[in-house]
TrEMBL record:
Sequence ranges assigned to domain Endonuclease GajA/Old nuclease/RecF-like AAA in this UniProt record: 26-348
Protein's name according to its UniProt entry: Endonuclease GajA/Old nuclease/RecF-like AAA domain-containing protein
Signal peptide location: none
Matching Gene3D superfamilies: P-loop containing nucleotide triphosphate hydrolases
A Pfam short name: AAA_15
Species whose genome carries this gene: Hymenobacter oligotrophus
UniProt cross-references to InterPro entries, sorted A to Z: AAA_GajA/Old/RecF-like (IPR041685), Bact_Antivir_Def_Nuclease (IPR051396), P-loop_NTPase (IPR027417)
């Protein structure tokens, strides 16, 4: 059985070593799906969605996470499995239409089916036929010799023909299962090079519950009380990986995270005192598990990682939001990795603009790199060509200014503008009263 697996992996070795281009052209087109009435989103290395609650930001983030997940393409349950995982299977309407394109590959999703465009179908079919043919040829060479070896061993053991038949009847189902497993691995490799990263890291806004419930998660998962599956997956990953981190600096809070003896602790710098995570400020509780998980995943340089983070600003003061965005870009955008954010905070947009402006100044004045780095660390600069930002409220509109290649000032000031407008109206009312 090991030989069969090695055969498949040797057949696919050249294909599996293919490198993705540095920048992928990835587009999601939606009509009438959940809160989204119409959308055309071009994803970049860093993509940000901002807008009111219920406008559809999370829907976009969940859909791209689904399309980047290998399970979407090879699950025996089809697309419905991941749609249920993210709780959006009920969003389909009769006229819903979702298309996903990545470079020259494309697909269309309906309620219970996935169809690929002509080019994609041809490529999938050609690789499938090629690998199946090679696999069958290798199997013809090796399986008979395996059978002969079994017969020979049985004869030496003094078994009669019925004993040999019993052995073979037990072995054939195992061989068939191995063939199915290797076929699944073959398709996984093919699709992973066409559409996706193996499993995107989706970090939900409900992560605040992780520290609040502390060590009660095992019982909650066991009792199946209906928590979002994406939250349970996040908790499971955090619980699994935190011991590998051990200690992690959280620079935006000037503290260290420590995992010791099954406990999540926060060490205040300059003090010997350590607090349990659930005893700390809400911003630390909401952020520390996310930081630990991303730190662990970002160390894996063998696989391309996709990070999708909901509301990074949770419970954070604006200055901490800015420091957090710098950290996210530095950790999540290494190599060909990418980062998608949903947010309600204009401070997140302002921080992204600053990181892009640092890159632009460096392009114009490369001799000032060291001075720029002192203001904005080099590792967190964003190339504006690799950045996209959208306002989402049932429909989706790009908020990047074509002239500056930054986020437009109107969108940064929307909230403060409406507050100022209301303030001016109150002042006018007061003035009218004073003049009366």
């Amino acid at each position: 059985m090991i030989c069969i697996r090695k055969t498949v992996f040797s057949i696919l070795s050249n294909f599996s070593r293919c490198q993705r281009p540095a920048i992928m052209n990835e587009q999601l087109i939606i009509k009438n799906f959940g809160p989204i009435k119409e959308a055309a989103v071009n994803f970049k290395k860093v993509t940000v969605f901002i807008g009111p609650t219920g406008g559809g930001k999370s829907t976009l983030a969940k859909l791209v996470s689904i399309f980047r997940d290998v399970d979407f393409y090879i699950s025996e349950y089809g697309p419905l499995d991941l749609l249920q995982f993210y709780g959006i299977e009920s969003y389909f309407e009769k006229n819903s239409e979702i298309k996903f394109n990545r470079d020259r590959y494309g697909l269309k999703l309906k309620r219970n089916s996935v169809t690929y465009d002509k080019v994609t179908r041809q490529i999938i079919n050609s690789y499938t036929k090629l690998t199946t043919k090679a696999f069958n040829e290798r199997s013809k060479e090796r399986v008979p010799s395996l059978v002969d070896s079994i017969h020979s061993a049985a004869k030496q053991a003094g078994l009669d023909n019925s004993g040999v038949d019993d052995i073979m009847n037990n072995i054939y189902p195992i061989v068939e299962q191995v063939i199915q497993d290797t076929s699944r691995e073959m398709m996984k490799i093919i699709f992973s090079k066409m559409f996706l990263y193996t499993h995107p890291a989706y970090i939900p806004s409900e992560r605040m519950f992780v520290s609040a419930l502390n060590n009660s998660w095992a019982g909650l998962m066991r009792d199946d009380i209906g928590l979002p599956q994406s939250l349970l997956a996040f908790v499971n990953n955090f619980s699994q990986f935190r011991s590998s981190i051990g200690k992690l600096e959280l620079p935006m809070f000037n503290v260290n995270y420590i995992h010791k003896d099954g406990e999540d602790l926060i060490e205040i710098k300059g003090s010997e005192k350590k607090l349990s995570l659930h005893e700390t400020a809400s911003g630390i509780q909401a952020t520390a598990p996310l930081l630990v998980l991303i730190e662990y995943l970002s160390r894996n340089v063998e696989e391309v990682q996709s990070f999708i983070v909901e509301e990074p600003e949770l419970n954070l003061y604006p200055v901490a939001q800015h420091d957090f965005i710098k950290w996210l870009v530095q950790k999540c955008c290494l190599g060909n990795n990418d980062l998608t954010i949903t947010t309600h905070s204009p401070y997140i947009l302002a921080s992204c603009n600053l990181l892009m402006e640092a890159y632009k100044v460096w392009q114009q004045r490369p001799e000032l790199e060291m001075e720029i780095d002192k203001i904005v660390p080099r590792a967190s600069w964003i190339n504006p060509d690799n950045f996209a930002a959208y306002y989402v409220d049932k429909e989706v509109v790009s908020i990047k200014d074509d002239r500056t290649n930054l986020i437009g000032g109107n969108h940064l000031d929307d909230v403060s503008g409406s507050i100022s407008d209301a303030f001016r109206k109150l002042l006018r009312l007061k003035k009218q009263r004073d003049n009366a």
